[in-house]
Design brief:
By secondary structure, the protein is mostly beta strands. The protein has 17 helices and 66 strands. The longest helix is centred in the last third of the chain and has 47 residues.
Length: about 1150
């Protein structure tokens, strides 16, 4: 009886995909999913590789968010801790301190943040949301958590005020009422200031919502309440009555006190500022319209735009500062939003690039009854955050240490490099610092709170962002921070477009013709390459020296047309039919003949943009080496580039689109290959197609071609290009065209029968209406043909129909010949196939080590000392391990948007196949290094992040992380080594995440501390006279006035208390183990004590009632004791 090896069976089952039991059809190298062992060599290879990665190494978590908070709504500052909080319309809060202290937290409801209030120097923050809920955040931990929430049920919150060193929060509502909340327990006090009690009884109209609340600096027992209609009430909290009332014709937007508490200033909807004195409340002490035109005597000044906010800050040795936003004249409609600073007689208007959301004046003291001594103004704009230095007369701004300008131009693509060469960051910074803006304040950044250290993560990280204006930014992303290193403007290689020429010469896009689509960077050689939306590729080399030179440009004619065909029946097809009349034609891609349409001369052989022809000065940094542009062909614009790859070792760049592939030698500045996709299959195709001239009345089809690339994610840029993933999947599910059948691997079983397949009408229509785009490119030392004995330079080409072509590159042997001898590029006829568009390639050696593509070691191309000597290019080839044994020496990993396969080379045997998804598709896939082992990381359109071990494709991690709600995420999501990834979470913010368990464990140590123990500064000595006549603020006891004993309890229906996840109640579900038992016991004791306290209160109440009843009964008895019955 034959023995059965159960261990092998179990290994095979564990390596296969769960739920991928369906066959992969007639894919070359084998069908089905899971491991395949077609040959003995493959089995040997599999036994040699020990995969060390397991699920214990992986965990998904967000690390840090960079950039400007999207759609900001609120601003707050702690003057003692010196930290800043920004609230947004999406319910997010960003808390900023010194560089490295940057915290992001989110309200679960997603409601907009209306207002933020710090508990000064207490490590806590109160947020008011648009769903009428107050939240108390604990900032004494690195990840802030909500301690309490209070949901208002019957009234809408409009304004909040928390006095300094007070635990009672004033809350104004839309109905005009003012409630008071205990911050410690987050329970409403029974003390309420009703709107009808605050205004005069004779007033017949509602005063409107509460727009301002503040206690008097002179007397904490007096509260200033501002209503929207222009009414201001000075409320005495002890006597529960209005001490004085102020009325004005215009609506009030904001109020601020003079520090002495005798005057306050209001801003109004007509652009006026009114100064009121408490001694004469009948009319304003002073009324000004700062930006109104002066009128004749007796006439009212001209109205201006509303002043949305004003701040009135005093100085000991100079005139007070009056700072306000808005208030400009209506006749200056084109003027930008502005902040006005009035200091004495000087009026300075600071124009802003974006509308002002909020501003705060930073002062030396947190005490409202002292000279404020303002030193800076924080201005929150819709798309920027700036801080103005008030200590200098020209009011310069501080240099912002945070990466708030990521969105300076919209981000169109991203690239992420972890563990890159360590000297790159210093080199890029030394070049970029020379081009920084000047004129900043020479003082230190005033938002300097918190504490941060580098932590355990030490490897360098670089993020590259491409933008819509053609700029590229390099960022230092080491240790979860972000700092801009260097900015490159790619548009400088092109001539500036005139207004009348933009629509005529660049019809491929109507806006942003320089937008960056794809980025390719070789950190070792420092060669940088970009492709733009106007169908161009620019190659840059890095130099420390400035040069003045002409920009070399090449033009590539890359166009593929499919014409109507008549399909013959299989029995009437001759062995070699008349190709020109029956099969799709591919016009000569390098010809230059112009065609004439019926309406006139059509555009042909012209690029979308014009490269500068004069010598150009190039500063140190990245300097343009070569510009490659695709040309118009017969009135049709060039299609956008969908794939890009470069090899510094070979000196070759390759790019493709939906028409075909182009390969360019950037050392000799020559075009090596310019070929339609179908022509790449010709070496194994008996039905050779010859070039044909197109029909004059040809209708070019651009709506139904099959293309997967960045143009899918540019609906606003690609006005003339429309692609559909649905059409792509339909093509993938349909029968494979004969051209593709004939392009299968030589190991396919039915290869010899593929030539006689009939061309059905459905297949012909696919050929006619679709295009096979080049979606992935990869340079590597590999085996170009089956059973090759030696490796050679190769270019792997992946298409949107799942085909993989291996193209050998014949390079000159010596370094001297490389600059003169031609490079030969010819498709080899080697094909592999997958399901879905190909996304990425990678290679491993026979020991399971990830092979890096060869590269050239960087040298400065403009170094004069090196040019005087004879030098040679220093290449690092990273070839597979050499061995004299017969067998395979290399794995090739290929991932498409549906499945992943591992092939063994040179036998081209498919060892493993894993159907990653059937109902969705992969957006981004990369082979990355994790703990010195390789794995395949995928991000799916349904939001799943999946990790697979290599080479077995064994699933390790599958987490439903983020559903694809925005194409921005699909366009910018990228993985890199060491368990790092990122994506653009909003138009202004980058979200970084990790899938490394080690980094998740160490993340707490890497984050900054928001709260640091600092002593509250002492109040200034008021002096004897001020203490005697300065009011009764020092003796005011809020606890006695607002506490339950005096004010009673508020109505339960008015607001609902909700314990937060950071409170004791919120930790009930999180408690576990011994500590959990102790916590639960303590909670039970607290609850029991609370119930006993409530019972005791009820008992005391009953006793009080009984005593009152006994007293009244005794009094009644004494009253009627001596009366006769007839006297009643």
């Amino acid at each position: 009886m034959k023995k059965f090896n159960f261990r092998k069976v179990l290994d095979g089952l564990t390596a296969s995909s769960p739920g991928s039991g369906s066959s992969s059809g007639s894919n070359s190298g084998g069908a089905g999913s899971g491991p395949l062992h077609p040959g003995g060599t493959a089995g040997v290879l599999r036994e040699e590789i020990q995969e060390t990665l397991t699920s214990e190494y992986f965990q998904i978590c967000k690390t840090v968010r960079h950039g400007f908070p999207y759609q900001p709504t609120a601003l707050a500052f702690d003057p003692v801790q010196k930290i800043l909080a920004i609230g947004t319309r999406t319910g997010a809060i960003r808390i900023l301190g010194r560089p490295g202290v940057d915290c992001y937290c989110q309200h679960e409801s997603g409601a907009a943040v209306l207002q933020l209030q710090f508990l000064v120097n207490e490590g806590a923050l109160v947020s008011a949301s648009s769903d009428d809920t107050l939240h108390l955040w604990n900032l004494r931990q690195k990840r802030p958590a909500i301690l309490h929430s209070l949901k208002f049920n019957r009234e809408r919150i409009t304004y909040c005020h928390l006095p300094f060193q007070s635990k009672w929060l004033y809350v104004g509502t839309e109905r005009g009422n003012t409630h008071i909340v205990n911050i410690e327990s987050f329970i409403l006090s029974g003390y309420v200031i009703m709107w009808n009690k605050a205004i005069e009884l004779s007033t017949k109209t509602h005063p409107g919502p509460v727009v301002h609340l503040s206690d008097s600096p002179r007397d904490e027992g007096k509260l200033l309440i501002g209503y929207e209609n222009g009414t201001v009430v000075f409320w005495d909290l002890k006597s529960k009555r209005a001490e004085l009332r102020v009325y004005y014709d215009e609506a009030i937007h904001s109020i601020d006190w003079h520090h002495e508490g005798k005057q306050f200033m209001c801003s109004h909807s007509d652009g006026s500022l009114t100064l009121w004195n408490l001694k004469s409340p009948t009319r304003p002490f002073q009324t000004t319209i700062p930006h109104g035109k002066s009128q004749r005597e007796g006439r009212k000044s001209e109205s201006c735009k509303p002043i949305l906010k004003v701040e009135y800050k005093t100085c000991r040795n100079s005139e007070p500062f009056i700072i306000f936003s808005g208030g400009l004249s209506y006749d200056k409609a084109c003027r930008r939003p502005s902040l006005t600073i009035m200091h004495g007689k000087a009026i300075t208007v600071l124009e802003m690039d974006h509308p002002i959301v909020e501003f705060l004046t930073l002062c030396e003291t947190p005490y409202p009854n002292e000279y404020q001594e303002p030193y800076a103004v924080v201005v929150l704009l819709e798309k920027d955050l700036i801080v103005v230095d008030l200590t200098q007369s020209n009011f310069p701004i501080f240099e912002n240490p945070y990466p708030m300008d990521i969105h300076e131009s919209p981000v169109t693509c991203t690239a992420y490099f972890a563990d890159c060469p360590p000297d790159l960051i210093l080199v890029l910074y030394s070049i970029g610092v020379k081009h920084k803006k000047q004129g900043y304040s020479n003082k230190e950044w005033p938002i300097s709170g918190g504490a941060w250290n580098l932590g355990a993560q030490t490897y360098p990280e670089i993020i590259i962002t491409g933008h819509a204006d053609g700029s590229v930014k390099f960022w230092d992303a080491s240790a979860i921070t972000l700092q801009m290193l260097y900015k490159l403007k790619t548009s400088k290689v092109f001539e500036k477009q005139k207004v009348g020429e933009s629509r005529q010469s660049c019809e491929i896009v109507e806006e942003d013709p320089f937008a960056i689509q794809m980025i390719y960077w070789c950190p070792e050689s420092r060669i940088f390459c970009v492709s733009g939306v106007s169908a161009y590729v620019i190659i840059y080399k890095f130099s420390r020296h400035e040069i003045t030179t002409e920009i070399v440009s090449l033009e590539v004619r890359l166009q593929y047309d499919v014409e109507d065909i008549i399909t013959p029946e299989p029995e009437t097809s001759p062995p070699f039919p008349d190709i020109s009349s029956q099969l799709p034609s591919s016009r000569s891609l390098s010809g230059s003949t112009n065609t004439v349409a019926s309406e006139g001369v059509t555009k042909d052989s012209i690029p979308c943009l014009n490269v500068k022809t004069r010598p150009v000065r190039m500063p140190p940094g990245y300097q343009a080496e070569l510009v490659i542009q695709l040309l118009w062909v017969d009135g049709e614009p060039p299609q956008q580039i969908t794939s890009l790859a470069l090899s510094s070792a070979y000196g070759i760049v390759a790019f493709g689109n939906c028409n075909g592939l182009a390969v360019v030698d950037f050392i000799q500045k020559t075009v090596l290959l310019s070929m339609g996709t179908i022509d790449l299959y010709r070496s194994s195709d008996l039905y050779q197609r010859q070039p044909r001239s197109p029909r004059k009345n040809k209708q070019f089809i651009t709506d139904n071609f099959c293309m997967r690339g960045l143009s899918n994610f540019y609906p606003d840029l690609t006005k003339r290009i429309r692609t559909s993933y649905q059409s792509l999947t339909e093509l993938n599910d349909s029968p494979i065209p004969p051209e593709l059948e004939r392009c299968k691997s030589p190991t396919s079983e039915n290869r010899e029968n593929s030539y006689n397949r009939s061309r059905s009408s459905s297949i012909s229509s696919i050929d006619k209406d679709s295009k096979e785009a080049i979606t992935a490119l990869y340079f590597m030392e590999s085996f170009a043909r089956k059973n090759d004995s030696t490796i050679s330079p190769c270019l792997f080409v992946g298409t949107s129909l799942g085909m993989v072509l291996i193209i050998p590159l014949n390079l000159p042997l010596s370094d001297e010949q490389r600059f003169s001898e031609p490079v030969m590029v010819l498709p080899s006829g080697t094909f592999l196939s997958l399901k879905g568009a190909v996304l990425t390639f990678s290679c491993m050696d026979r020991t399971g080590g990830l092979m890096q593509p060869p590269y050239e070691v960087w040298r400065d191309p403009n170094n004069i000392d090196e040019n005087e000597k004879t030098w040679k290019r220093k290449l690092v080839m990273n070839s597979p391990s050499s061995s004299q044994e017969i067998g395979d020496h290399q794995y090739t990993i290929i991932c498409s948007e549906k499945q992943a396969k591992v092939f063994s080379l040179p036998s081209q045997t498919c060892l493993y196949v894993h159907n990653i998804t059937e109902t969705s598709f992969i957006l981004q896939a990369n082979v990355v290094v994790m703990c010195n082992s390789a794995c395949l990381a995928c991000f799916c359109a349904n939001g799943h992040i999946m990790i697979m071990s290599l080479p077995s494709l064994r699933p390790i991690l599958d987490v439903n992380y983020l559903p694809l709600t925005d194409m921005r995420i699909a366009r910018t999501f990228c993985f890199t080594n060491e368990g790092q990834a990122l994506y653009l979470v909003s138009p202004t913010e980058i979200q970084r995440l990790t899938y490394s368990q080690e980094m998740c464990d160490n993340l707490q140590d890497m984050l900054g501390d928001l709260f640091t123990p600092i002593e509250t500064p002492e109040a200034q000595n008021r002096g004897f006279l001020k203490g005697l006549f300065g009011g009764s603020g020092q003796t005011f006891d809020r606890e006695e006035l607002f506490g339950e004993a005096t004010a009673g309890k508020a109505s339960r229906s008015l607001a609902q208390h909700i314990p937060g996840p950071g409170s004791i109640e919120g930790m009930k579900g999180a408690a576990g183990g011994v500590m959990g038992e102790l916590t639960r016991a303590r909670i039970a004791l607290d609850e029991r004590g609370q119930r006993l306290g409530e019972l005791e209160e009820k008992t005391a109440g009953m006793m009080t009632s009984a005593e009152a009843f006994s007293k009244h009964a005794h009094e009644l008895m004494l009253k009627y004791k001596d009366k006769k019955w007839y006297q009643f």
